[in-house]
Structures are given as C-alpha cells and as structure tokens.
Design goal:
CATH superfamily of the domain at 33-167 and 258-295: Bacterial extracellular solute-binding protein, family 7
Shape: globular
Bound molecules: calcium ion
CATH topology of the domain at 33-167 and 258-295: D-Maltodextrin-Binding Protein, domain 2
Number of helices: 13
Number of strands: 11
Distance between the termini: 97 Å
CATH architecture of the domain at 33-167 and 258-295: 3-Layer(aba) Sandwich
Order of helices and strands: HHEHEHEHHEEEHEHEHEEHHEHH
Oligomer: single chain
Structural class: alpha/beta
Length: 378
C-alpha cells in the first residue's frame, strides 16, 4: 500500500486559515471604534468599586493618591475596573473607613493604619514608629523585608487586604503657639498627634488628641488644641496653619517616614480576575512611590514660601527634648509588647529589620548626607 504524504496539504491548509483569520482581525479592528474593540477584546466582566477615604475630597497630597490610583486602574484595565473615590463624610466618616471596607459597604479605603490603633495596636508599625524607619527603609521592609506579609496577616481577620498607599518622607514636628525649650514645656500641651507619637506625648505630660485632617484648622484656631502636627511644608502650607500658629518645629521624630494605606475588601478582591488583581497591586505601588516623589519635589519650595513670604519661625526641637521623647518611646514599645503578643511579634520583626538596615545606612545614606553638607559649608 502506497504511503500518502499528507503533511503538506494540512500545513498549507493551516497557513491559509491563519492568513484568513489574521486578515479578518485586521479588517475588523480597522473598522471598529474603541468601545467596540473593548467588547471584542473580552466581552469580559466589568467591575464598579467604591473607595472611601479619611481625607476630604481632593485633599492636597494625601487625598490625591486615591484619585491617582483610581485613574491608573481605569487606564490600565481599559475601563474594566472603575473606582469611584469618596471623600471623608460623603459615604462614611473619616474614622469609619476601616469598618466600612471590612463589612463591604465599600470595596476599598485610603487612610493610615495608625488610625486603627484602638482596635489593632500593632497596626501602628505599618504607618510610623517614632525614631524608627524612614520612607526608603519602610518601603524596603514592607516590600522586600517581610513587613507586608505581617500587615496582611493582622488585617486578615477583618476580611481586609492592606497595601502601601503613599509615603510622606520625614514629617515636620508641627505647629506650635508656644516655644518648646525644655521637656517641661511639653507638660499640659494639648496637641493633635496620632499613633505611637501621641502615646509618647501623653507620657511626657501632654495630652494627645486624634482629630481628622479636615477639622484641624478650626481646632487649632479656636484653641481646642495648643499645637498640631500634620505632614510637611507642602501639605501644611495648603492648610494655612501659618495663619494661626507662630512656630514651625522640626524634625518629625514621631513620623520619620509615614506610609499611608490602601485597604481592599478581601471578598471583593477575590472576585476579580488575575489581571485586575495585578493592576490593583501595581497601581497602589505607583501611587505609593508617586506621593514620595511629589513631596520631595514640593516640600522645599513650600518651606521657603512659609518662611520668606509668611514670616513663619522655623525651629529645631532641642536635643534634650528629642532625647527625652526617644527614651519614653523605647519604654512605651517595650511595655506594649509585654502586654500584647501580636504587637510583640511585629515589634520583633521591625527591630530585626532595623538592626540590619541602620548600620548599613550609617555608612551609606547618612555618611553621604554628611559629606554633602561638608561640601556646601565650604
Ligand atoms: Ca502626621
């Protein structure tokens, strides 16, 4: 029986089919508008999410991160995931964000983990630890040092997935109407200062209060508080604190590299296909780094304006005061860790990362800053 060579006809047939298919695709793409192309690409499911924030709508700096994030997600997903951003009080009050996203009333939130210290003391490690890691180091710990995994673990019981949502860099110590010349001057000081820094102030004899950003100006103006910290020159200038406070103190010992957060309802996240999940994560990373870049570019110009045009008195906290606060902070961390096993576990991991990164940064970042300053002095 003669063997038939049947390969060439099959290959030719397949090639012909390929040419026809490709030609049809090109022809249909050329004739279709963007909306039709979108349908052609997937016929895929689209999602509409709500994102609630602890900031007033379109708040400078901090509030631009969720807006930027939502826009990126819409662009990257070709409109398959649309996220509507709501300012504080539009759907839920600022301090109701965690609960709303946990319960699924909104799919996402933007704020800061230390706002939730009342229900979750260990959450404070994921915003800022006084005298702790700076922005660069926090990002390193979270994304390549095991920090994010710990953060996810402590939010898991609340059906929440956390992601870094912005870095402010080193903040300012805050706005004061009286000078701080010694530790005695901290006694009786009523100051808006959240997180662990607030606890440190309490132990130093002051009274820390947590007030959402949108209510701060009035609180300071009416004397409900004597002092407030917020972020840094760029944000603080927009707020107008220079109109109601005389002294602007540095450095921001209490928030050396604060990280903001996105929180995602876990059930909602799991309903997304893999590519949209990757887009959410990538857009959050983008917003996180972009905030730091924005502050780096704008803080210095804003400070110059505050001092040169508005006559703000820039002051450094005395070493004696900083050293006292640092001692109190160490005691506070140790004592809280002794009472709260979860806090202790995160504290241990945080300290292990610090023990690795700080010695190296002494001979790299810090040594370079010193070298650069020497150059300038000559
Ligand atoms: Ca702050």
């Amino acid at each position: 029986m003669k063997k038939i060579n049947w390969y060439p006809p099959i290959i030719l047939g397949l090639l012909a089919l390929l040419v026809i298919t490709f030609g049809t695709l090109v022809a249909s793409r050329a004739s279709l508008g963007p909306a039709q192309q979108f349908t052609e690409v997937g016929g895929q499911e689209t999602f509409e999410w709500k994102l609630v924030t602890t900031w007033p709508k379109n708040f400078p700096g901090l509030g631009s991160a969720p807006e930027r994030f939502a826009k990126k997600v819409a662009e990257m997903s070709g409109g398959r995931l649309k996220i509507q951003v709501y300012g504080a009080g539009e759907l839920v009050p600022a301090m109701g964000v965690f609960g709303a996203v946990s319960e699924g009333a909104a799919q996402m939130g933007h704020g800061a983990a230390y706002y939730w210290k009342g229900k979750l003391p260990a959450a404070q490690f994921f915003t800022a630890v006084p005298f702790g890691l700076n922005a660069q180091e926090m990002n390193g710990w979270l994304h390549h040092g095991g920090g994010l995994e710990l953060w996810q673990e402590i939010y898991e019981p609340f059906n929440l997935i956390p992601m870094a949502g912005g870095s402010t860099g080193v903040q300012m110590a805050g706005w004061f109407n009286k000078e701080i010349n010694s530790v005695e001057d901290l006694r009786g000081l009523k100051m808006r200062i959240p997180g662990l820094g607030g606890e440190v102030l309490n132990r130093a004899g002051g009274t820390a209060v947590t007030i959402p950003g949108g209510e701060l100006y009035t609180a300071l103006q009416t004397g409900v508080i004597d002092a407030t910290e917020w972020v840094g020159p760029y944000n603080d200038l927009a707020f107008g604190f220079h109109q109601i406070a005389q002294y602007y103190y540095y450095p921001g010992w209490h928030e050396p590299g604060s990280i903001l957060e996105f929180i995602v309802n876990k059930s909602a996240f799991e309903k997304l296909p893999d590519d949209l999940r990757a887009i959410v994560r990538a857009a959050a990373r983008d917003a996180n780094q972009d905030m730091l870049d924005e502050y780096t570019a704008r803080n210095n110009r804003a400070l110059k304006e505050l001092v040169d045009q508005h006559g703000v008195q820039l002051k450094r906290l005395p070493d004696e005061v900083l050293s006292h606060l640092k001692q109190i902070n160490t005691q506070l961390l140790e004592e809280t860790a002794a009472e709260d096993p979860q806090f202790a576990r995160i504290y241990k991991a945080f300290r292990e990362f610090e023990a690795q990164v700080i010695p190296y940064h002494r001979i790299s970042e810090e040594a370079y800053y010193e070298t650069r300053s020497l150059e300038r002095d000559h």
